[in-house]
Amino acid sequence: MARIERAIVIGGGIGGLTAAAALHRRGVRVTVLERAGSLEPVGAAISLAPNALRGLDVIGLGDDIRALSAWQGDGGLRAPGGRWLSRTSAAAATERFGGPLVLLHRATLVGHLVALLPSDAVRTATDARLLDPGDSGRPARVGTPDGELEADLVVAADGIHSAVRRVLFPGHPGPVYAGFTTWRVVIPLPGVEFASHETWGRGRIWGTHPLKDGRVYAYAAAVAPAGEHAPDDERAELLRLYGDWHTPVPDVLAAARPEDVLRHDVHHITEPLPAYHHGRVALVGDAAHAMPPTLGQGGNQAIEDAITLAHHAGDLPAYTAARLPRTTGIARRAVKVARFNLMTNRVGIAVRDNAVAALSKAGPALFLRGFDSIAGWRPPQQPYASQHTTQSNG
Predict the structure, then answer these.
(1) What's the half-sphere exposure (Cβ side, CA atoms, 13 Å) at 378?
(2) Are 130 and 140 in contact (CB under 8 A)?
């Protein structure tokens, strides 16, 4: 197994920063190269499931993030008129999966990750290009505006439109449009009480969830042509699509300003890559396996990638072997869930809603069972950094 002393991470998102923190913890000298002028993430919130939280335990961050969980009591799935199709609770989910589901702002997670790195580890406003992936006999080379850098390992965390992926696998078709677009909002919503929920309509989804800091995270998705935008503004578009849905949807839209609403089309990788590495370069997160957000696993899988990569840093084929089958299966499942959630056939929707309601009545454990294989992931190494995880895994 090759010794890794110097690593370069291309991309300062959640996957890249987690990889940097995990490698730094193992004694590797790490430099993160981020093209943007700051690490303030574009986006809103991220949901971290127990699998990702166990990964964060390895770098000593899991319990700090668990403390940010705001979901208490009941929640579940609703129809646009307000009928509950299924109900579950934070306690049931925690018991089932061995830990909570935590929703937090992406900027909060990024701040925690950066705090684990040396002050000079992150370079912003730095465009990085892979010049040579290297091999067992020579280091990888990365070009920057300030000159070339060499490394024993390059972590490509440069997102769904990864330039590094195109260099490593020029024949791969890359991401394709998933058939739907999304909106996200994070705003204060004082005086409005609601249970955490996701709502399924005809070709449309809405979700509203509390954050620990008192704000509310709302998201929406709708079947739409690629590249479409509202003729006026995206808040007005949300009012047209969701304005007559159940409380608190109208309250969120009344409190939001046009500039609070982010809209992005969803793209994903349908054809799996042949490997997640080439030479001394490893791909993580969306660069490797971009998937629809319907399972809430995009960022979670990036964290799993990062922790697993740090463990196998000197043996990249082992990293691919550990990650490619799992992420391919989860990505395919996310596509199937998107088709189920966003179906447009009225008869199919009625059958779907009745089936979900019947399954929920059979018991929360039965309804949650489908997430077991995802949430049950454990990091590849012990001891874990978190006492909580050490105890829960025996």
Answers:
(1) 12
(2) yes
In sequence order, what E strands does the chain have? 6-10, 29-33, 45-48, 74-78, 84-89, 102-105, 122-123, 129-132, 140-144, 147-151, 153-156, 176-188, 196-200, 204-210, 215-223, 262-268, 277-278, 281-283
Which tokens hold the place of 215? 């704000």
pTM of this structure: 0.94
Q: What is the pLDDT of residues 179-236, one digit of tens each?
A: 999 999 999 999 999 999 999 999 999 999 999 888 999 999 999 999 999 999 999 9
Token pair for residue 106? 């992406």
pLDDT digits (tens, 9 = 90+) for 39-59: 877 668 999 999 999 999 999
Query: Which residue, chain included where needed, has tokens 């705001």?
Result: 70
Beta bridge partners of 37: none
DSSP structure string for 252-291 = HHHH--GGG-EEEEEEE--S--S-SEETTEEE-THHHH--
Question: What is the signed CA dihedral for 111, 143, 311, 107, rounded to 10 degrees?
Answer: 10
State the Cα–Cα distance between residues 112 and 231, nearest whole angstrom: 39
